[in-house]
Design a protein that fits this description.
Elements (H helix, E strand, L loop, with lengths): L1 E4 L8 E11 L2 E9 L8 E7 L8 E2 L8 E8 L5 E7 L7 E7 L10 E2 L13 E2 L5 E8 L4 E8 L7 E6 L8 E8 L5 E7 L4 E7 L10 E6 L6 E4 L5 E6 L8 E6 L7 E7 L5 E8 L5 E7 L3 E7 L7
Antiparallel strand pairs: 1-24, 2-3, 3-4, 4-5, 6-7, 7-8, 8-9, 10-11, 11-12, 12-13, 14-15, 15-16, 16-17, 18-19, 19-20, 20-21, 22-23, 23-24
Length: 313
Amino acid sequence: MTSEFIYDQAPFKSCHASTIVETEPGKLLAAWFGGSDEGNRDVQIWWSQHDGNAWTPPALASDQPGVPCWNPVLFKSQSGKLFLFYKAGENPRAWSGLVRRSTDGGKSWSKSELLPAGLLGPVKNKPIQRKDGTILAGTSVESYRAWACWVERSHDDGKTWRRFGPIFVPDQPYGIIQPTLFETRDGRVVMYCRSRNIGRICRSESRDNGETWTPAERTELPNPGSGIDLVQTAEGKLFLIYNHSAQHRYPLNLAMSADEGNTWKQVHVFEEEPGEFSYPAIIQASDGRLHATYTWKRRRIKHVVLDPMQLRG
């Protein structure tokens, strides 16, 4: 395992909600939101590139001056197209979804464009792309006193999207947000979700390519009302990064499942001291290693590299 902070100095005080993607073999791109404090008008999206040796200084990635920006999501489609999704608005009840695209491995990017009304893009976690090319992005809505998840689906490499849902926990108005997705061997799509006032990660599944979903159910995995993420490796194992607590944003753990989420075992603890270690992202790179990023006390973004073959619990 190796770990590092993505930056030592930055033109912002507070940071949160990182995301990471491999732009080409051996090269990474990470993004997050940073400013004086979450929700303030100076909060924008920042990013940094890793060329295999070091991270570049943080650079501005959004172009919404004076408007708070939130929750970037980086994604690379099977065609090689890169996406940066993010949100802009006064709060999660009033934000809009935006996207930037790159077709040259991240060397150049389109200007930000608003997603069509009613679409937000992936709200925190990377989409998945099925073997037939379908892209499924997990999103969610945080209304005044009601939370629910949705899925946005694209059949044309992210040009157009349709929205399906809502997915919710029966009799739990606050419910669930920020789903992370994977596909089972028999073709089901499964989501794991952050919850509020439930204290557990919740789970739902679809058997029709994301159009309809089962009512979300509690799992045995705790959740303190904080973001999670998972990755399905080339070997089919699942690695879930989350806060193993029903009350606190610590510790930050990694759990592994070899049976598509039926059972989980703890394989790594990233952080265990009191503090905020939260909103993780995790991917598998082309060399097989796992890359995780997460908020470190709202002051830094930490990057950790793990060999999944050495994670056995």
